[in-house]
Design goal:
Order of helices and strands: EEHEEEEEEEEEEEEHEEEEEEEEEEEEEH
Number of strands: 27
Mean pLDDT: 89
Radius of gyration: 20 Å
Low-confidence stretches: 1-9, 21-36
Number of helices: 3
Structural class: mainly beta
């Protein structure tokens, strides 16, 4: 087995805030292909066919050259090309929306491929970890740029901003995190200045749908939920004013990912627990801030991904979980509302350059969405 390479790349922010990635070790080392390095315990570990939700799983080994679609037996049924992407997800039309955030081979942005891997749309942007295709055809993108704000940090910030672009690439809405520290002070008690120039490291955006939580105007449709990982905080932005109107997480969350709103009006998130050394999935009733459901390992340290990862509520009530980074290293599994594991899969595919099996995110899709495309 080839010895895994240590990741090496250089990211430079230019004067106008644009990002330039110089190269990756798989370019300078010339490692071709998509290595499969099966080890004991890799692949499908268990499945309870009576309790697992039917469907297909989409993921890409982090920064790899392929997106994979698996059936419940862990078999690859379809592939798309990738550009050392963090993650992607499927649209109702069978297209794949993905990022080119870490690609050394093309511009940084959000890319749409059809079912056969043909490029149909691209928007160049300083994408940073997340994006969402909206019902109106627009795309919301989390971006990052360098900003000097000594009242936040003495060093130059890597600061989050959001843009919503229409299909023609025109920006129709924009929001900048560094302009909203007063709301964070009021809602969370956050003290400024901070030491970390990557002060929010925002990793998720979710434009709120119509849900029962909309009875509170803070959670009305169109408002925007964002995960500020380095502040252990999820926020909601009022779209019309740009004001942060809700925040939750300090004292509970620990370097979380994937804070999204469920159809029932609750927030679900993957709380990495980077400091406490065990992870959890929280379901939170946002109006009261009460945790109404959770999943933890037994013992807690048996479920732990220090970074990356996400959780998804499925139509049958189960929860699909990607425990993406070390020490779990790309473990994908599904649990019932009672916490019973009914499907467990260990990613067997090494990262393109490094020999690590980490996965940024994974998603599960119902058969009726996928099988019409597989039959074509």
């Amino acid at each position: 087995m080839p010895k895994p390479l240590k990741r090496w790349h250089s990211t430079t922010y230019k004067e106008d805030g644009t990002r330039w990635i110089r190269y990756w070790n798989h370019i300078i080392q010339g490692r071709p292909g998509f290595p499969v390095r099966p080890e004991k315990g890799d692949g499908l570990r268990m499945m309870n066919r009576e309790k697992v939700a039917p469907g297909y799983v989409l993921y890409s080994p982090d920064h790899s050259k392929k997106f994979l679609l698996l059936n419940l037996d862990g078999e690859i049924v379809h592939e798309w090309p990738a550009f050392t992407s963090h993650f992607g997800y499927l649209l109702p039309n069978g297209h794949l929306l993905l990022d080119t955030e870490f690609s050394p081979d093309r511009d940084c942005g959000v890319l749409e491929l059809d079912w056969n891997g043909k490029e149909v749309w691209f928007h160049e942007a300083q994408v940073h970890h997340d994006f969402q295709r909206l019902d109106n055809g627009n795309t919301m993108i989390v971006c990052q740029r360098e900003v000097d704000k000594p009242e936040i940090c003495a060093r130059t910030l890597l600061s989050t901003y959001l843009i919503e672009v229409d299909p023609a690439g025109k920006t129709v809405w924009e929001w900048h995190s560094e302009e909203h520290i007063e709301e964070l002070k009021r809602l969370t008690g956050q003290k400024f200045p901070v030491d970390n120039p990557d002060w929010t490291h925002s990793n998720t955006v979710c434009v709120l749908p119509e849900t029962p939580a909309a009875r509170d105007r803070r959670f009305k449709p169109g408002n925007v939920m964002v995960s500020h990982r380095n502040l252990d905080t999820a926020i909601v932005i009022e779209r019309e004013t740009g004001e942060i109107v809700w925040a939750w997480g300090p004292g509970t969350m620990d370097k979380q990912h994937a804070t999204i709103m469920l159809p029932n009006g609750h927030m679900i998130c993957f709380d990495n627990g980077s400091g406490r050394k065990w992870s959890a999935v929280w379901e939170v009733e946002p109006i009261s801030g009460r945790i109404v459901w959770s999943y933890k390992g037994d013992p807690p340290t048996s479920f732990f991904a220090a970074a990356l990862s996400n959780a998804q509520r499925l139509p049958n009530g189960n929860t699909f979980i990607c425990s993406g980074s070390q020490p779990d290293f790309g473990r994908l599994f599904e649990v019932t509302p009672q916490g019973e594991i009914v499907w467990d899969f260990q990613n067997p595919y090494a990262e393109y350059a490094e020999g690590q099996k980490i996965v940024y995110r994974a998603y599960k899709y119902p058969p009726e969405m996928i099988e019409k495309w597989l039959r074509r």
